[in-house]
């Protein structure tokens, strides 16, 4: 069987009309939304007609021409409602999604539907797409535990029941797909363990490493960077506690980029630990700001326990940064302990502080070795390989 991921893009191949279904999309900032924008932009560059079905965040509805990752595409914004326990999460009304999906499918008439979750949009598109005989490709970015932790209020005694129900819903939607993928092999095994889906493909979300600028000059300061949603499963409180344990002689600073429902609590924690003057909460930032921060940083920290891949970690690696990450889920796929960074036991604040100190006090030659290894490892996650593979799936070719 040919290695599709290494195939060169063929400009003479027939162009496709692709409809991507998204429960979360820009202006939301999260791994799934970033991947969808990057995937859509790459497909546009290759000449495909790309449409996205996604919630409206500002009240605008209907087919809107939008620019994402520098490319124009059509986004079909659908009326959504805010989930008030969460500061930004919006969702389509479940009892309206089938009608909205049918309307958009009949308008767009896509060759293929690529749905990015089963929660609401994916359910509607798979039901209506199957009726119309449209090829269905699914990608799972979802862990029920994450949703329950930061979006849904569930009493503890009902948690296990709710997780089972969530996986059962995922099973129903993904079972309608011709092929199913997740970002990593670990995530693929996780999905197969909790559903009846088999043959799940591990396809990296991919990044364009050329967008990031590594620096091998000595860093101006001991800057530690975190990038991601400010939510409970990211374990940012552990990072702040570890930061507070660092020697004052290091004069380290911690920069936290992202938004989420834990921001106020974490700011309070930083004040209580008397490090608020050295912890910067940047909130929602531009891509240019992110790239500049990653270039200037000395180490990237990812304490999360629920990463199915971690695009932000890959962005840091493409910026030539050593990584200190929790030894959990997919992070060990990216962080090779003692080679491009260090893994620590999830939740162990003392160990996290010790690993951060090791990077911050490294001799320059050893630091450069770690930086080059990050660049080497992230090469396997080139977005062009990801695009090649999904193009093959869209056309029904074997992968």
From TrEMBL:
<dbReference type="Pfam" id="PF13439">
    <property type="entry name" value="Glyco_transf_4"/>
</dbReference>
<keyword id="KW-0808">Transferase</keyword>
<keyword id="KW-0328">Glycosyltransferase</keyword>
<dbReference type="InterPro" id="IPR001296">
    <property type="entry name" value="Glyco_trans_1"/>
</dbReference>
<feature type="domain" description="Glycosyltransferase subfamily 4-like N-terminal">
    <location>
        <begin position="29"/>
        <end position="209"/>
    </location>
</feature>
<feature type="domain" description="Glycosyl transferase family 1">
    <location>
        <begin position="218"/>
        <end position="372"/>
    </location>
</feature>
<dbReference type="Pfam" id="PF00534">
    <property type="entry name" value="Glycos_transf_1"/>
</dbReference>
<dbReference type="InterPro" id="IPR028098">
    <property type="entry name" value="Glyco_trans_4-like_N"/>
</dbReference>
<protein>
    <recommendedName>
        <fullName>D-inositol 3-phosphate glycosyltransferase</fullName>
    </recommendedName>
</protein>
<dbReference type="InterPro" id="IPR050194">
    <property type="entry name" value="Glycosyltransferase_grp1"/>
</dbReference>
């Amino acid at each position: 069987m040919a290695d599709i991921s290494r195939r060169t893009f063929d400009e003479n191949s027939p162009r496709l009309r692709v409809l991507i279904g998204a429960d979360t999309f820009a202006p939301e900032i999260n791994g799934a939304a970033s991947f969808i924008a990057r995937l859509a932009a790459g497909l546009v560059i290759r000449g495909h007609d790309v449409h996205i079905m996604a919630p409206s965040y500002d009240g605008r509805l209907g087919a809107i021409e939008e620019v994402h990752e520098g490319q124009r595409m059509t986004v079909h914004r659908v009326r959504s409602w805010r989930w008030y326990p969460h500061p930004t999460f919006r969702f389509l009304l479940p009892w309206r999604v089938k009608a909205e999906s049918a309307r958009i499918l009949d308008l767009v008439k896509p060759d293929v539907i690529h749905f990015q979750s089963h929660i609401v949009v994916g359910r509607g598109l798979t039901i209506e797409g199957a009726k119309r005989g449209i090829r269905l490709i699914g990608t799972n970015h979802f862990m029920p535990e994450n949703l329950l932790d930061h979006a849904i209020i569930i009493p503890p005694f009902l948690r296990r029941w709710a997780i089972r129900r969530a996986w059962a819903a995922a099973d129903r939607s993904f079972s309608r797909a011709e092929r199913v993928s997740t970002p990593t092999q670990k995530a693929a095994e996780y999905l197969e363990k909790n559903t009846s889906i088999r043959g799940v493909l591990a396809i990296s979300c991919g990044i364009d490493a050329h967008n990031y600028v590594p620096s091998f000059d000595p860093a101006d300061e001991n800057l530690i960077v975190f990038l991601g949603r400010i939510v409970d499963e990211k374990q940012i409180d552990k990072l702040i506690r570890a930061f507070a344990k660092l020697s004052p002689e290091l004069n380290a600073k911690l920069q936290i980029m992202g938004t989420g429902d834990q921001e106020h609590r974490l700011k309070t924690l930083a004040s209580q630990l008397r490090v608020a003057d050295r912890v910067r909460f940047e909130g929602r930032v531009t891509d240019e700001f992110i790239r500049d921060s990653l270039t200037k940083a000395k180490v990237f920290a990812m304490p999360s326990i629920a990463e199915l891949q971690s695009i932000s970690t890959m962005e840091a690696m493409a910026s030539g940064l050593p990584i200190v990450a929790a030894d959990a889920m997919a992070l060990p796929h990216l962080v090779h302990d003692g080679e491009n960074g260090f893994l620590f036991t999830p939740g162990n604040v003392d160990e996290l502080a010790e690993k951060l100190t090791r990077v911050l006090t490294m001799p320059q030659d050893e630091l450069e070795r770690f930086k080059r290894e990050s660049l080497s490892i992230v090469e396997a996650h080139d977005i062009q390989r990801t695009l090649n593979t999904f193009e093959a799936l869209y056309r029904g070719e074997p992968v």
